[in-house]
Design brief:
CATH topology of one domain: Serine Threonine Protein Phosphatase 5, Tetratricopeptide repeat
Order of helices and strands: HHHHHHHHHHHHHHHHHHHH
Mean pLDDT: 89
CATH class of one domain: Mainly Alpha
Number of strands: 0
Number of helices: 20
Length: 333
Amino acid sequence: MGKEDYEYVKTKLRIVRDLKKKGLRGAIEELTEAMEDFPNEPLLRIEFADCLRLDGNSEEAKAMALDVLEKSPANPNVHTVLGNIYLEDRLYEKALDHFEAANSIKRTGYLTSRIIRTLMDLERFEDAKDLIRQELIEDPDNLRILKAKAQILAREGAHQEAADVYRKIYDLDPEDAFSYKELLRLKSKDREPEDVSREFKKILKVSKAAGNPHLHSELGLNLKRAGKHKEAIVEFQNALSLDPDNNFVRSHLGFCYAKLKMPLKVVETLSVAFIENPKDVYVRSSLMAAVKKLGYWEEFKKTIQKAMDRHPNEKTLWGLLKKTDKELEKREG
């Protein structure tokens, strides 16, 4: 590749990375155009594989990334993409192998945080804590590493220590809405849900806090725990209006509709959550109960097919499809 071609590819990659922040469609279009001229260029193919991953096409992304890896085994970016694919597929050992391979080629803070995250998923907490300690000696204000430390402390039940770390994160980055929510949540531990809800309502009256989707979702969870499902629905809806792709919030919104015996709303809400994550047994069981009550098997079959398109390797969907077909046969018979 000549100098001009190389500069063209680098320019395209800069454009693609900017577009990815806004959405995948524009990024994929730019890459498709560039790959017409340079179909075998590893830099473009790695970026395209990552876009496919983010778009939910993990198998196609993995095939492309593995092909690049075979030709460019020393490229840290292809190891990073494969690590993220395997992490999302919950193949944590494979993910760790690729993140560590990438980090050995080119050490970055992002890769270190991915390694720590994967060690946590493997429940190798002592290894994760050792790595966190090493990183914080070098950079005590590293936000990614501090967040990992806070997560481990919270998981271990060291709520005050975790809150102190989130306080530091929030002081370093006052725009970090999630850390602010976690700080408040941990400070409210062991208090009654209704008391916590009252405190969160006061905080949300402040204009800046009102735009924090994490605070609305946390208030929704506290109201749900207190059995105030109608109020919780309002807060989950507020959270989704600020963060429309939050499947966790959408799932809990659906659970509230289920508690209030609103099966049509359950189907509308949890069908979206199910397509996004068909492995969630609580979403699946609540959705199926509402489908059964309404007799919406035809609609549920379409939902399953959409989930299969998005998650072609999720084998449980085939069994669910067969069960749905049997229900449809009963109705026709």
